[in-house]
TrEMBL record:
Belongs to the protein kinase superfamily. CDD domains: STKc_MAP3K-like (cd13999). One of its GO terms (biological process) is signal transduction. One of its GO terms (molecular function) is protein serine/threonine kinase activity. Signal peptide: none annotated. The keyword Kinase applies. It comes from Lithocarpus litseifolius. PANTHER family: PROTEIN KINASE ATN1, SERINE-THREONINE PROTEIN KINASE. GO terms for cellular component: cytoplasm. Residues 315-338 are annotated as: Disordered. SMART domains: S_TKc (SM00220). This is Protein kinase domain-containing protein. The lineage of its organism: Eukaryota, Viridiplantae, Streptophyta, Embryophyta, Tracheophyta. Residues 325-338 have a biased composition (Basic and acidic residues).
Amino acid sequence: MGSGSGIYSEGEFSLDAKWLVDPKQLLVGPKIGEGAHAKVYKGQYKNQTVAIKVVHRGETPEEIAKREGRFAREVAMLSRVQHKNLVKFIGACKEPVMVIVTELLMGGTLRRYLLNLRPSCLDMRVAVGFALDIARAMECLHSHGIIHRDLKPENLILTADHKTVKLADFGLAREESLTEMMTAETGTYRWMAPELYSTVTLRHGEKKHYNHKVDAYSFAIVLWELIHNKLPFEGMSNLQAAYAAAFKNVRPNAENIPEDLGLIVTSCWREDPNTRPNFSQIIQMLLHYLSAISPPEPIIPPRIYASENTVFPPESPGTSSLMAARHDSGETPTSNREDNSVGFFSCFRHCY
């Protein structure tokens, strides 16, 4: 239902009219991803290639209420926060099904990218560059009072040229509150901060106090993975990894990481959340490390026009360096429009 203020509202779900998607203009193509409660399709919206996330409502009244609440929070946060390292939000609708439309990134997930690279590792400058992208996205979220709670390689998407990482999936994100008790057992065990678990057992739905520093812990595990290109807590199940981290203070081995980079990793996964750095500090530490391993390129002196008979003194640079020319080339990725796209309602009948 609409209102004079241009706000679409229905129950817990409210959205500025400019973000409201017309489902009749959605063309749904092939499925490109699937989670426990949603499927993601490549599609078209108003002649733009997009990613279409279709959220399954659930079966029981409790499931429906929980998923509608999560959907409403995700849409609210996506529509409120924009950053070059966050997947761009295009719009959403709640009826006839819950749909979130975002830009389509053709580079795939960071998880898939790393798996395809194994057993090789990322160049350290590339790894730190990706880490900076992630840290900047998280700094933006935290500056808006939002905790992501599910930072992991599956929720990090690469651009088509594999040069930029963007954070996606706000399904578990919550606004931070000093008084609210938030639900534990959110996110994925292997990347979850120890304070998310019960001190007695890993019971589902346990309520605990925690803050934005849970994302710093998850970032440390992701950074470790970027450096080593190995699964953290290798050889353990997800539950075993969670138990080891929470109750035995076990962390992945950080001995073979360069000292300055190792300091970032180990400070971010400290047991006491209050001693972990915030993302503004993390960004500065990463930039400092990057400048140490990649010193600025030497400045090329301006082109000098001289006669053919000019003689340079011995201490002067050679003619080749003075006259060097730089040739930069760029490539713009293109995406092919799917010919097998179908109308939204037609797709929905086949989705569930």
